[in-house]
UniProtKB/TrEMBL annotation, chains A, B:
This is Prephenate dehydratase. GO terms for molecular function: prephenate dehydratase activity. InterPro entries: ACT-like_dom_sf, ACT_dom, Chor_mutase/pphenate_deHydtase, Preph_deHydtase, Preph_deHydtase_CS. It catalyses: prephenate + H(+) = 3-phenylpyruvate + CO2 + H2O. Homodimer. It is an enzyme of class 4 (lyase). Residues 4-182 form the Prephenate dehydratase domain.
């Protein structure tokens, strides 16, 4: 397997910064790709060992291009996640003053996060979208625009300076990234894990989705993400991308997945992996009988009953 | 109230075509706005009677800019919906042949719907995004690009011809649009209605979302859309935009909404309005005791009990 990771490029974006926080990235060649699709395809055809792409954003929600790629096509699996706080710097050519700025640029995804700042500080500046934040910085270097919103780390690479840093409209603006590879045995349980799956309902009827979620709820499993995505079969036809607390080797999670496998048209397992926030899943006292010990104890009891040893 | 409708412009896009299918549009002045936000703000400040914007797409799912606008800010209400089938024409300057086309343009939302067609028929053409499909057609007229994907209806307006029509990657590619106004009494029940709401959970615990959906399921109400949207309070914090079959004046729906009001942190009512597909909601025999007659009969019985007349 080639020792390289594909990632959503170009170089000098938040994705590269997030990828470099993974210890294993230091021993791999990191290759930028022009799109999420091309990065994941590089993994599918064996050009790269894994791909690193954004999957969820606290301002925009689930990143649909990534979810749709994981939902369809040759199955892939998530092995790691990284959470990165996103704040922007306003990058300009050295010597530019705030009052000189007539045009600003950045990737369209940056716009909702800098909109209020712009309204207050540069109400008359014209916004032009760039292919990426790094590309916006390059266009400022070339003189096409006066200023770019990008990570502060991009300033040095493009010979720019940060006129302002720490720009963000929403407190706690974070993006979640995942490392995706070909299916293999999931990483071992850490005690603070997350399991990602995609569910397709057998048919559409009152209570259908409620019944699917019941497979988690009756086993005391908390959900962290539920994002509906169109199946392509017309308005109103959705599958569900779900992140749930726990690891597939946990009894509670294994049971929930078996229950879903029985009642769903299709279930795609997207992986069990350590939570970036390292918080162990919490089983609430609200649901008595759902502690890990009780799950193990109940399995022992059934096994003893089956042996006539109860 | 001014007799004008704001809509997501510019002129000559699918939004305008969809708006003109509404009989009431014939008696209003139709004014294009540059964004969903500005169209809805025109209603909020009383500049327009209502705004007409896309809200759901069978390829891309819920249109997040519209949902986020309805979720936040001064409350608005949905009064009508329109479903429009979306197929693209490839528009060129008269005389252009397929082999002449080096560059193509359209709104980014068109790309997933024409991607396969492009790969087959114009594998080497360079894609450049336009601000709207109509704007793409204008840029072809000006000679900036060789071809634009747009509605066939845009050809005449920009002096172009359709080299190919009926282009779509997904069968049944449809977009759903809504007419949004200031809150008032919902339109009367037609028997084929839809109710839209936004739910915020009190807290995040195992089974929390399942319990919310249970308010619909136990009353035999089918859901048509469930789209999670970030609350802005960080990764993992979502509210839920829900479309459910039925009208707020139906007993079943009124009961479900009361149940949600009791258990949710917040419920925003976005309106009850006729379904564009005119299909009456189906109550499945699977859920005995949930016919309209049974709801009315049960209410009568409780009233009689309260009077000691059972």
């Amino acid at each position: 397997m080639p020792a390289s990771y594909a990632y959503l490029g170009p170089e000098g974006t938040f994705t590269e910064v997030a990828l470099r926080t993974l210890p294993e990235a230091a021993t791999r060649e990191l290759i930028p790709y022009v799109s999420v699709q091309s990065a994941l395809d590089a993994v599918r055809v064996g050009e790269a060992e894994a791909a690193f792409v954004p999957i969820e954003n606290s301002v925009e929600g689930g990143i649909t291009t990534t979810l749709d790629e994981l939902v369809a096509g040759t199955p892939l699996m998530i092995y790691r996640e990284v959470l990165l706080s996103i704040t922007f710097a306003l990058l300009v050519r050295p010597g530019t003053k705030l009052s000189d700025i007539k045009t600003v640029t950045a990737h369209p995804a940056a716009q909702p996060q800098v909109r209020n700042w712009l309204k207050t500080h540069l109400p008359d500046a014209v916004w032009e979208s760039a292919a990426s934040n790094a590309d916006g910085a390059r266009l400022v270097q070339e003189g096409r625009y006066d200023a770019a919103f990008a990570g502060e780390f991009a300033a040095a690479r493009y010979g720019l300076e940060a006129l302002e840093t720490g720009i963000h409209d929403a407190e706690n603006a974070q993006t979640r990234f995942v490392l995706v590879g070909r299916p293999a045995r999931p990483a071992a349980r850490t005690g603070a894990d997350k399991t990602s799956i995609v569910l397709w309902q057998r048919d559409d009827h009152p209570g259908g989705l409620r019944d699917l979620l019941g497979e988690f709820a009756t086993r005391g499993i908390n959900l962290m993400l539920l994002q509906s995505r169109p199946t392509g079969a017309g308005i109103g036809n959705y599958c569900f991308c779900i992140d749930a607390e726990g690891h597939i080797s946990d009894r509670r999670m294994a049971e929930a997945l078996m229950g879903l496998k029985r009642i769903c048209l299709q279930v795609r397992f997207l992986g069990s992996y350590p939570r970036a926030d390292m918080q162990p899943g919490e089983v609430r006292p609200l649901f008595p009988g759902t502690s890990d010990e009780e799950f193990v104890g109940a399995a022992d009891w059934v096994a003893r009953c089956q042996d006539g040893r109860f």
